Structures
1.
Amino acid sequence: MLRKPIIGGNWKMNRGTPEKCKEMLESLIPLVEGINDVDLIIAPPFTVLIYAYKILKGTNIMLGAQNMYFEEKGAYTGEISPIFLKGIGVEYVILGHSERRDIFKETDALINKKLKTALNINLKPIVCIGEHLEERELGKTKDIIEFQINETFKDLTKEDILKTVIAYEPIWAIGTGKTATPEQAEEIHIFIRELLTEKFDKGTADSIRIQYGGSIKPNNAEDLFNKENIDGGLVGGASLQVDSLVQIITAADNSVK
Ligand code: PGA
């Protein structure tokens, strides 16, 4: 099954001024312009999305947002409508990142609403799932993943799920420098495909891209991406340095050669 790997650079709450954004993107663009076998996404803060769009237009890098609200308009002070995101050229949106879940108390039910809205207006969702360290240590990883898949993807059709990217991000590996071993990550990616096979069918499960996320660095990217069921990654810290991001992108590109 040939799935195109996807690398997302999640800048989180960094590089949110025009100067920083421009500096990063203008050095990144020429270094990855020959990459056609990997989908490339940069998700900068909201403040520079439109600015980033103007810089990225016509390149092979797509624009992502880090969050959105599930309503399209109205009295929701401080929230961002997915329609606005679409309107300024955003193609992907990260939903249910563990920082949204843990710090901002987003529930699976809320993420499910956001996911349905995103799909409705053709924003491509990247949905994050993953377990906490205590859950892993108690042997509950698969239960957590199954619960998150059931709740977050509730009522989705096969067509919907085929437009969705899943990011398996063990929370204990995010920003900690601790990476899941390629074997640990692959085990859960296979498990996710089994769950999707039960919910939909094998062909559908085999078509869905599942990224890994959590302390991906140039020195571990190749081993992770060479696993059959790992289709690229969602990169936080290492996406803030052009050279490390390019090395990670190159590792994903090599994994399909
Ligand atoms: P990290 O973040 O690469 O800094 O661990 C990954 C993520 O939060 O998606």
2.
Amino acid sequence: MKTKGTYRFSFGPWNIDEGADPFGPPVRQPVAFAKKLKQYKKLGFSGVQFHDDDAVPDIDSKSHAEIIKEAKAVKRMLNGEGLVAEFVAPRLWFSPETIDGGYTSNDPKCRRYAVNRSKVCIDIANALGTNRIVLWLAREGTYIRESKKAREAILRIRDAINAMLAHDRRVRVLIEPKPNEPVDSALIPTIGHALGLSYITDDPGRVGGLIETAHAILAGLDPSDEMAYALAHDKLWSVHLNDQGGLKFDQDKSFGSYNLRRAFNQVRVLEEYGYGKKGEFVGLDVKAMRTQKQEVAVKHLSNSRATFLALLEKAATLDRRLEAQFIKERDYEELDRYILCHLLGRKYR
Ligand code: 3MF
Ligand code: MG
């Protein structure tokens, strides 16, 4: 059992936001990046997750030299706060070149843009001191299936990853699957798809996954089982813990806020199989409720971390002897009862 202090937590600057949604404008003032960085340690976090343009805004209008200079300045800011960069993700869903997807766009010019931008993203990651690139394949999919040839599209994603692996022999690519939103049908909807894809790249040892709770739930799957699957492949290299109320839009609710037992099982599986021992971060991809006022719009982060730690204690204090006994007797009704008592903090029997 690891002690509480041995997990390292991370989040991205987008997790402190202005509360806009597709139906209404911002309700909070923007917080400057430097001010966000000041929050990390206070909230109990030491890792920063980046999009390439979180580190270097207006990236497409800058020269390569400017981009690297700015990324190095961000690295100095991180050093100043005692923080480290966990990963950088190319934002391949914003620019006009990525309307039809990045690596799978039907326009070869747009595909070239996506691959070039991914290479720049690797250079930024190096300047920030991380070799981890996360690919959330936001628009690699379709609104109507006939618009792209799915097999060809998968091989295009493979080729793009190969180009990234060749660009830097130390880089590691973490695929973050999601089944839908913004597209109707994503080409890499689950971790099984992501890891399957890793094995047809030029260097499978450098391609793994990041699992987000909400994304697994949106695929109708159990997030802890998805994590176990990636752990069985030694390819769970990061997580985005949060919560989600069923098959709706991607909610990014605070970890454990919807289904505590499901959250417990994620913590349990991470803890049981040594997640974090190779330096993996516990990432939280959570959003403050739109109703939250400015001064208290970071509680979702500290609360999610606190819930993780509380559930870690639940995992540690689970009576493994009893658990084994019920499993041996195949008395899963009793196991169910015991787990609920344990989570409720009630004396069992
Ligand atoms: C989308 C997400 C994204 C990714 C992020 C980094 C806003 O559903 O979860 O977070 O995690 O872009 O890959
Ligand atoms: Mg995410």
